[in-house]
Design goal:
The protein has about 220 residues and is mainly alpha-helical. The protein has eleven helices and three strands.
C-alpha cells in the first residue's frame, strides 16, 4: 500500500520542535559529567558539543546566520563547528537553561522549519543512543521529518542516499520508493537516511547492505 503524506501546519511543527527541545533539556539534566564528555555519533563531537550545536541552532536568526557563515568563508562545517564550540563552552547548566528558553520561540536560520524538527530529532539520537538512552519521538513528528528528507538533498543528501531503494517502517504506515527494501522503525530509518550507519545493524531487507555503502 502506498503511503500518502498528511498535511501538517507550521504551527504543529513548531509544537513538535518545542516538545522535543523540552525532552532534550530533561535528558541533559540527568547526565553525569562523564556522560557530557562521552563521544556522540557526530564524528569528533562529544555529547556537550552536540548540545552546543543544538543550542546554537535554536538561538539562530537569519541575520546572525549570514554574518557567521560569511565569517567562516561560507564553509558550513566550519560555521557549525564554531557555533557548537562557542555554546558548548557555556557548560551544562547554561545549555539546559538556554534550550528551555527556546521551547516556545520560533526564530530559526534560513531554510524550512521541517529541517529544524529533523535536526532536533536526529541530533537527539546522536547522543542518546551511544549512551544507551531511549527516546520515542511521536509518530506525527517523525512523519514530517521522513516526508521532508526523502525529497531533499539539502546538506545531508538524504534523497540521493536512498535513491533506488524502498524504505518501509515497521511501526508506521510510512514507506517510500521502489527497489531493494530497508525496513525497521521509522525513527531508525530517518537516522539511516542521514547516513547514520550505526542503526543498520538491526534493520532488515535486501537493501540494507546497499544503503550501508552509500556515503
Amino acid at each position: 500500500m502506498r503511503y500518502r503524506e498528511a498535511h501538517v501546519t507550521t504551527n504543529e511543527i513548531w509544537r513538535y520542535i518545542g516538545s522535543e527541545r523540552s525532552d532534550l533539556a530533561d535528558t541533559w539534566e540527568s547526565l553525569t559529567p562523564e556522560r557530557w564528555d562521552s563521544a556522540s555519533w557526530c564524528e569528533g563531537w562529544s555529547v556537550r558539543d552536540v548540545a552546543g550545536h543544538l543550542v546554537a541552532s535554536a538561538e539562530q536568526t537569519p541575520g546572525h546566520f549570514f554574518a557567521e557563515f560569511a565569517g567562516a568563508r561560507f564553509r558550513f562545517n566550519v560555521f557549525a563547528e564554531r557555533g557548537a564550540q562557542r555554546c558548548a563552552a557555556a557548560g551544562p547548566s547554561e545549555l539546559i537553561r538556554r534550550l528551555r528558553a527556546r521551547t516556545t520561540t520560533r526564530n530559526h536560520p534560513p531554510g524550512p522549519v521541517n529541517a529544524m524538527l529533523g535536526e532536533v530529532v536526529v541530533h537527539g539520537d546522536d547522543f542518546r543512543r551511544p549512551l544507551g538512552l531511549s527516546h520515542q519521538t511521536p509518530e506525527a513528528a517523525l512523519l514530517v521529518v521522513a516526508d521532508s528528507w526523502k525529497k531533499s538533498n539539502l546538506l545531508i543528501g538524504s534523497k540521493r542516499r536512498i535513491a533506488g531503494l524502498r524504505l518501509a517502517a515497521t511501526d508506521s504506515t510510512w514507506n517510500h520508493g521502489d527497489g531493494p527494501e530497508v525496513s525497521g522503525p521509522l525513527q531508525s530509518l530517518i537516522l539511516a537516511m542521514t547516513g547514520r550507519t550505526q542503526v543498520l545493524d538491526d534493520r532488515s531487507g535486501d537493501g540494507v547492505a546497499l544503503l550501508a555503502k552509500r556515503p
